[in-house]
Amino acid sequence: MKAIIYAAGRGTRLRLDTPKILLEFGGRTLLEWHALRLREAGVREVVLVTGHLREQIAELLPGICIPYEVTVREIVNPRFHEGSLLSLKVSLPEIEDSYEPLLLMDADVFYPVGMLDRLIRSPHPTVLLLDREFSTDDDDPMLVPVKNGRPIDFRKQWSGDAEFVGESIGFFKIAPADFPLLIKETHARSRGSSCADSYDDVLRTLVLAGRFGYEEVTGLPWIEIDFPSDLVHAQKQLVPVIIGCA
Prior knowledge:
Strand content: 15-25%
CATH class: Alpha Beta
Number of strands: 14
Distance between the termini: 21 Å
């Protein structure tokens, strides 16, 4: 199994002079934590989509492969400032050449290995992770309403009739049978000189088509690093919890 990690964004809300994937938690960068967690979950092939300040990431890649026993290849999105859809588009050759399920992962998540275990071992061919415990007080989470045992939408600020609503973690397992729709939607939405749509819009198409199952990770500690408060909370409170979580 191969994992594609999307790390091209600018992280404008954090106002950093380094990519978010190089932020350190417990003595390791997020990049190192991804490599470690993927290896622990049995994934040894990693494709990293870079863009903003990619030179900083590329400089560290040789030091990742050997100690973490993973193969990391870099793909550069030169139009990273135009949105996440183009990061997905530059990764399409990796998807088209695959004959087994793929992991698609946001780069800015700090999490325990058990999260990937649930994703990889899920009986659903195409599956997303969700957490029922979420807050909209200071963020705008990607919401996943569930009805009749299936996700029925994938969007921010959702309202409607559902059995329950969870927040997406930003990690997905995609089955080969669903590659054609993902590829078709990506191409269709990225035509022209500008891209108003996002990576999430493509995934929403698959959700609306009934392709996704879900796995709950409610109760597992994790955090998406979007705001300065997230960074402080992760470094001061979550590091020992996540590192010590099986």
